Amino acid sequence: MVKSQFAEKQAEKARIMREQALSRPEWLKIKLNTGEEYQELKQLMRSKSLHTVCEEAKCPNIYECWQNRTATFMILGETCTRACRFCAVHTGRPTELDLAEPEHVAEAVEQMNLQHVVVTSVARDDLKDGGSSIFAATIEAIRKRVPSCGVEVLIPDFQGDWNALKVVLDASPDILNHNVETVRRLSDKVRSRAKYERTLALLEKSKQLRPDIRTKSSLMVGVGEDIDEILETMDDLRSVHVDILTIGQYLQPTKRHLLVEKFYTPTEFLRLRGEGLSRGFAHVESGPMVRSSYHAHEQVLRADGLPLQSAQSSI
Questions:
Q1: C-beta atoms surrounding 311 within 10 Å
Q2: CA-CA-CA-CA torsion for 19, 218, 240, 177, nearest 10 degrees?
Q3: Are 205 and 212 contacting, i.e. CB atoms less than 8 angstroms apart?
Q4: What is the rounded CA–CA span in Å between residue 267 and residue 286?
Q5: Residue 185, by phi and psi: left (phi above 0), alpha (psi -120 to 50) or beta?
Q6: Lowest mean pLDDT: which of 22-31, 122-131, 163-172, 265-274?
Q7: Mean pLDDT across the chain
């Protein structure tokens, strides 16, 4: 038993040394851009006490997106009740719930004259409805202020509460997004309290309740999966009729988080895009720096077969 434990420790030590030897490839270098648009958007968010997943999750695209006046609103506060091993969002016991938040988000959308908005949240397992009523109120507030604005929501799993899911769907978002994040084998390791099968069930239930609303999911690679598992995940998502898939490289946000097991090349991401399209997704956004909300409006246009020239600022 002692020998087995020693061998396991040695194997883990060797794995950590291999990871530390990995240097971030050139195609993952981030260009820092904190120009006028970036500063203006940051000031707008702070003035309305709003949070963005761009900041909280340490998204590598924040400088590009904010300079282009794009972001993803994060509602229900900034403290998550879960502790997923890939995510940099603060974890703890939430105390805040701003009932005026939906109106503040809508005001920001109106001020920025946006055509497409993405709204996500921390997980709020402490709330009876998981925060679904705030999601619905945010959608409705945006519709009231900017009727022409497309609304995409990136929701938690609501612990499998389909009544909470229905509350969000009844508010009629244009896109219902829920991320699978990783392959089946690694799901319990990577995602705190989230379940692979529950994710599939939520996406399937969404289509059953509102077949007119597009569904979307995101997969990050580089946490120890193999190609066959990625393809299996694609098949699982298509089996529940997911329309849009995004695939991006996992990047370790802090030393406390999961280590990067592999950096995929742009060529490999191109291949994954082809595999996804061959399986019938309406659109696949695949690349090293791709995140779930990256170029979100352009994703919708491509899925609908529309020219990108009609895209304006999206958030």
A1: 18
A2: 150
A3: no
A4: 10
A5: alpha
A6: 22-31
A7: 82
| pLDDT tens sequence across 99-154 | 999 999 999 888 877 778 889 988 888 899 999 999 999 999 999 999 988 899 99
- Class of the CATH domain delimited by 29-310: alpha beta
Q: How many CB atoms lie within 10 A of CB 307?
A: 8
What is the C-alpha separation between 255 and 241, in angstroms, rounded?
37
Residue type, 80: C
Structure token pair of residue 240: 């529940």
**3-class DSSP string for 132-183:** HHHHHHHHHHHHHHCCCCEEEEECCCHHHCHHHHHHHHHCCCCEEECCCECC
- Token couple for 87: 């995510």
Per-residue pLDDT at 309 exceeds 80: no
Q: Looking at residues 243-272, what average pLDDT do you find?
A: 90
User: Sign of torsion, CA 229 230 235 238?
Assistant: positive
Q: Are strands 150-154 and 116-121 parallel, antiparallel or unpaired?
A: parallel
Query: What residue spans of the chain are helical by DSSP H?
Result: 2-21, 36-47, 53-56, 62-67, 101-112, 132-145, 162-170, 187-190, 196-209, 227-239, 266-278, 296-303
